Task: structure prediction
Amino acid sequence: MIEVRDLKKSFGNVTAVNGVTFNAKSGAITGLLGPNGAGKTTTIRMIGTLVGIGAGGGSVSVNGLDVATNADAVRQTSGLLTDARGLYIRMTAHENIRYYADLRGIDPAKSEATIARYVGWLDMKDILDRRTDGFSQGEKMKVAIVRALVHEPSHVILDEPTNGLDVMTTRALRELVKRLRVEGRTVMFSSHIMQEVAALCDEIIIISKGRVTAQGTTNELLSMSGKDNLEDAFVALAEIDAEHAHQTQREAALK
Amino acid sequence: MKMPTKSRMNALNFKTIFTVLKKELRDHLRDRRTALMIFVSSIAVGPLVLIGMSYFISSIEEKAEKREVFVQNIAHAPQLANFMARQDFTVKEPKPDFRELIGQGKHDAVLVIPNDFTEKFVTGKADVELVYDDTRQDASAQSIGILRRVVQGFNREVSGQRLVARGISGKILTAVEIQETNMGTPAQRAAMLLFIIPWLTLIVGITGCMAVAIDMTAGERERGSLEPLLMNPISRVSMIIGKWLAVACYGMGIVLLLLAGFWATLTFYPLPKIASVVTLSSAQYLGFAVMLLPFTPAIGSLQMLIATYGRSFKEAQTYVSYLYTVVSFIPVIAMFAQLKDATWQLFVPMLGQMMVLTRILRGEHLEAMHFLIPLGICLAIALFSVTMLTRLMGQEKIIFARS
Result:
C-alpha cells in the first residue's frame, strides 16, 4: 500500500506537484495518468525517496513507512524504475543486474534464482551474458527492470516504462506487471497513454498541472467525463478546473 | 534540496566499498583501448625521457670536445692553415651548398678564404668571410665563436710578429689577457634537465587518472545510471570511497609502471651518458614511490569532484582540463620565478612533490617533513573531495540534471 497525502513540490518558481493525494492498494495496479509535465515523475521520485519532501510538503508512506524518516527501509521494500535507465555498457546484462543485487547485500544464490525467474518471464536468455553496448531500447528496458526488481520489492513503481518500446516488449512488460499483481504486490504505473493505462490498471489517477483531477476505474472515469471513448475522457478529465478538483478530491479523501 | 538522509546513509560499509571498487575496476579494465593507452604510455615515459636525455648530453659533450672548423679554400691561406694546425684544430671542407644549409640550421658556420688572400696578406689588407645565421641557436651558434676566436688568435700572433720585426714587444697589443676556466661540465648542464623527470612523472600520473575519474562521475550522470544507483539503500559515502579507491588503484598502478619503466631502462639499456647524471638507488626509488603513490589518488579525487559538476563526459573533461593546466603549470611558473627550495613549497600540491623528487634525484639531504607534509596535504585533499562528493551526490541538481 502506498499512501500519498497532500504532496507538494516546487523547483524555484515552478510548482511541479501541488497537493496530490491518493492511495495505491496492494495486489492492484494503480495507473498514474497525465500529460507531459503534469508532475507524474516528481510524484514518483518523491515516493521513491529520490526527491526530498520539504516541510509542509505533505507525506508519503510506503508499506506503512514514512518516506521522509525511513528512506532506507522504503528503498528496501520498493523497486523504482524512472526514465534514468542507464546501464554499464562494458558489463553484461547479468553483471549489471548482479551489481545491484550485491550492493543490496542479497545472498548470491537467492539473487541468481530471482534473476533466472525474471529472465524467463521477459525472455532474456539470449542477451543475459552479452555486454549491454548496442542493446536495443527494449533490451535495455528489460535489463533495467530486472535490475530494479532484483531484491523482490513488495512495491513496484514504474515511470513511463513503455516509452519508446516496440509492441513485443510492451506486451512482455504488461505481462510482467500482471504477474506482479497476482503475487500481491503494489504496482504503480505511470503513462501518458490512456489506452495503455486502461488496459492494465485497476485504478486510474489522472494528474494535471500538479494536481489530481480525477480518479477511479476505467468505467468510472468514462461516466464521470460523459464521453464514450477513453481518449476524449482523458482530455476532458485532464482539463477539469484544477482548483475544483482539489476540493472534490479532498472531500473524497475525508470520507 | 537534499535527498532524505536518515539512517545509514553516511555510515561506512566495507562491503559496499568493496562491491563498488570491484565493479569499477572490472568495468574500466574492460575499456581496453583506454587502459592500454594509459598503461603503455606510463611505462614508456621512463625509456623515452632517459634515452632523450642521454642523446642531449652526448651532443653537448660532443660539441664541447669537438675542435674542428669548416674553412673553404684553406689552400689559399697556408699561414692560417698552419696556425690552426698548431692550435690542434682539424680543418674541414664545407659542403658545396653550405650557404643554404646554414640558413636551414643544418651546417656549422664557415670561414671563406678569397683566392687572393696570400697576395693581400703580405700587404696587410687580407680579409676573410664568416658565413653564419645568428637566428639559429643550434648547429652554428657554437661554431661561430670558435671561428672568431681562431681568426682573432691568428691576428694577434701575426701582428705581434710584425711588431717584433719593428722592434716593439707584441705584448703591447693585449692590455688585459683573459684566462678562461669553464666550470660547467656537460653533466652539470644536463642536471638542469633533472626537472623534466619529476615533472613528467607527475603529469603522467595525473593524466592517467583523468578518464577513469570522469567516467565514474560525469559518465554516470550522462548514462543515466546515477539515479538508479542512488536508489539502492547503500551508504553514499561508501559508494564514493569505493569509486575513489578504484581511481586510486589506477593512479597508483600508473605510478608503479612509470617507476618500472625508469628502472628497466637504467638496468637493461646501456646509457653510459645518463649514468653521470641519473643513477637511482633502491632508496631513491622508494622515495619516488612514497611521494607519488599518495599524490595520484589525491589529484584523482579532486578530478572526480570537479567532473561531478559536468552533465556529460565532454563537459566534465573541459572542467577537469582547467585543473590539469593549473597543476601542470605550477612547477613551470616556479621554475621561471627561480624559486629556491623552501619549506612553504611542501604545502603546495605539485610544487612540494617537484621539490622533493628533484632533491631525491640529486641525492640531496631530506628530512621526515619532506615526506610527511606532502602526504598530509594529499590526505587532506582526498578527505575534502570525498566529503564534498558525498554531499554533491545527494543533490537533486546533480542526480537528475542530465545533458
Chain B touches chain A through 37 residues (CB under 8 Å). The longest strand of chain B covers residues 68-72. The beta strands of chain B are 68-72, 90-92, 110-112, 129-131. Chain B is about 65% helix and 5% strand.
